[in-house]
Amino acid sequence: MATRRALKHIHISPTQIPYSTGAAVQDVLVKNYLDHKRVPDVVPRPVPTLLTMEFFSVYTFGRRQQHDEESVRKIEELKSKVPEADGCVTMRGGQTTFHGPGQLVAYPILDLKEFNLSTRCYVRMLEDTTIELLEGFGLRAKVTENTGVWLSHFEKIASIGVHLRRYITSHGVAINGSTDLSYFDQIVACGLPESKATSIIHAAPEEWKRQMVGVKNPIQELGNRFAAILQQNLDHRLGHGKA
């Protein structure tokens, strides 16, 4: 049985933050891991960390889109249609997605080798963690042949896009809690015109209200729940906790 690795959970701010702030914190943590791999006798091994946050409105684009002329044109069109939302090209995989108020963004920063995880198994763990979180609201989510987590083949409730460098993870999951879904009308999820975004409050309004009544920061509460489930899944991977 491998040594248990406790996941440190950091909710960056109790209020919404710019995308650039979350990205900067993520980059520092990733650099710490890479520095440790380069000079392990000098730089201590970092602690696996889950960053959670809630962004101001922003559309983010996958790394491949910045080199595609059609994607660049669509990015500029999007910026002109929704001027109040920022736009940013990221290093994650995937296509265009939206982040904003009412959405939990969760970025695990860890070394897949420490947990004996392949890329495929890691992505599946993020999917399973999201599905289990949604089960707490009485929602039966699932994965399909398309990326993300879905309530049906046409209703997407969470996006997943990760980046790996020397087995160090970054980026992760975005789960719609009480997000304004109209922002998704400007993009096409997974390149599927018939698909649409949904949220916890849209799919389970009474359960959301019941669980979040009196909760000062619902998105931080979602982050706490996501962190607890992810820790359980990582423990199980290393042979700790319940099977």
Can you give a write-up of this model?
The chain is α/β, with parallel strands linked by helices and 243 residues long. Helices cover 34% and strands 21% of the residues. It is built from six helices and ten strands, in the order E-H-E-E-H-E-E-E-H-E-E-E-E-H-H-H. It has helices spanning 19-38, 69-81, 119-135, 200-203, 205-212, 218-237, and strands at 8-11, 49-53, 58-61, 86-89, 97-99, 103-109, 149-150, 155-165, 168-176, 196-197. Strands 1, 2, 6, 7, 8, 9 and 10 form a seven-stranded mixed β-sheet that branches. It is globular. The protein starts with 7 loop residues before the first strand and ends in a 6-residue tail after the last helix. The mean pLDDT is 90.
In short:
By secondary structure, the chain is α/β, with parallel strands linked by helices. The chain has six helices and ten strands, in the order βαββαβββαββββααα.
